[in-house]
Design brief:
22% strand, alpha+beta, four-stranded antiparallel sheet
């Protein structure tokens, strides 16, 4: 028997603790909610509002502007500043066009990736900070960019509450509470207070 055992090939023994039949591995559960991906782009806020603040002007605004333009044109003519005369006429024409033609509505969208204005998209990494200003009774959201161009984005909020917009943007951009007005802004406010082109009582309701 010993000789027979020596000639028998040594085969590996099967472990006794393994099951004889293959185990059934648990199947992966089907995801019922496909929107729970952390990398999904979500729309946080979307609205439609005019592209710029607009207020209808009365006849006094146009008459006063024309009188001031004629006065400036006479002074420039006496000094033979013909090129500046054309510039003044162009500026008055643009201001009349903006005061006469109402702006079209723009579509704004704030998402987890950035801000969309019509067909222009800006990533959060391209934006710097934001603040609010009120122009002609309308709240305007200003967002400054890292790049020199465009430099700043202006979004008209329309009927939106600026506090709600602030809570949406704060996780992505810092809020600037105080904005120091520039020399041109201070000059424009001083002229508007001391030399108004239109009596506030006679303004046309928009």
């Amino acid at each position: 028997m010993a000789a027979i055992d020596k000639q028998k090939p040594l085969l590996p023994k099967e472990p006794g603790d393994l099951p004889k039949e293959p185990l059934e591995l648990p199947k992966p559960e089907a995801r019922s909610d496909q929107t729970s991906s952390p990398h999904e782009i979500k729309t946080l806020l979307a609205w439609t509002a005019p592209g710029r603040p607009f207020r209808k002007r009365g006849k006094q605004y146009y008459l006063t502007s024309l009188l001031i333009m004629l006065l400036v044109e006479i002074i420039l003519f006496l000094f033979s500043q013909y090129l500046l005369m054309l510039v003044v006429v162009s500026l008055v024409f643009v201001s009349f066009a903006l005061a006469t033609v109402p702006p079209r509505d723009f579509h704004y969208r704030i998402s987890t990736e950035g801000i969309t204005i019509e067909d222009h998209f800006f990533l959060w990494q391209e934006l710097y900070d934001f603040y609010f200003r009120k122009i002609d009774g309308v709240d305007i959201l200003h967002i400054r960019t890292h790049a020199f161009i465009p430099g700043e984005l202006t979004l008209t909020l329309g009927d939106l509450d600026k506090d709600h917009v602030k809570t949406v943007i704060l996780p992505y951009l810092p809020f600037r509470e105080v904005i120091r007005p520039t020399f041109m802004e201070n000059s424009g406010d001083w002229l508007a207070r001391n030399f108004p082109l239109e009596n506030p009582k006679n303004q046309v309701a928009s």
